[in-house]
Task: structure prediction
Amino acid sequence: MDSSVSLENQIWFLRVCHHVPFLLYHLLPTCQIHSEVRIKEYFVAIAENVKRQSKNKLTNDDNNSIDNHTHFMEQAFNKPYPSMECKCTTMKEIEEIIKSLKTKNKYGYNEISTKILKISCPFISSPLNYIFNKILFWGVFPDRLKYATIKPLHKNGDRCEMSNYRPVSLLKSISKIFQMVMQTRILKHLTKYNILSTKQYGFRIGLKTDNVIYKLTNENLNAMNNKVLVGGIFCDLEKAFDCVDNDNLLSKLKFYGISGVDLALYHSYLDKRHCKNSNI
Result:
């Protein structure tokens, strides 16, 4: 330390530094000290609680029977859908996907950012192409790509209240690339056979929520001009993505023509996933 500082002040400074961890532990709110454990327990339990409540409500309201969605789909559609054609990947496709990723320094479980992927693209596109084609051929998603880091993002309100956070999954960068390979193939199949509803605007290429707002406004104004009564029903699904049942999802994919090795791949992708929490 600086020789101009008195010995007494140096001793005082060292004593304060020694007790800093102790002071921080007792001065910080308990919610910050134990945030990681609380967040993990909260997000793991919340989806199961919502699903359990919904299942109990359906059972009680329908005389202990839950509608079979597969039976409904078979009645709604006359013909089964053709099987999906899953083509092999190419180095060109892999390189285009990597280039399309946003350049970020953030990374998932394996600590490899998209920035590093883009820099190393000429060297990794060939081995990735080989690995991805093996995955498509065998229908098995590697366990090492199933790890995700969950980052809680504060929405509003009290920071010590877990319900005021929204979980965001940071996936492995390699996993992101293969997911886009899977997405390209299933979207092509769904579009080819007009499986998706024309009234679905979210999460579709070339469509966004602005389109549905314009359509809704336009139809309402036309109805009002023609002196027609306008009514609307708005539904908010609680924790919709967290509560998707994997078995129901896979049975619907099978009905839509995703079968055999392709269906096995989606089953493998959804099965036994792992996550860890990051700090707030």
Q: What stands out?
A: The CA atoms of residues 201 and 213 lie 10 Å apart. The first helix runs from residue 7 to 27. Confidence is low (pLDDT under 50) at residues 16-30.
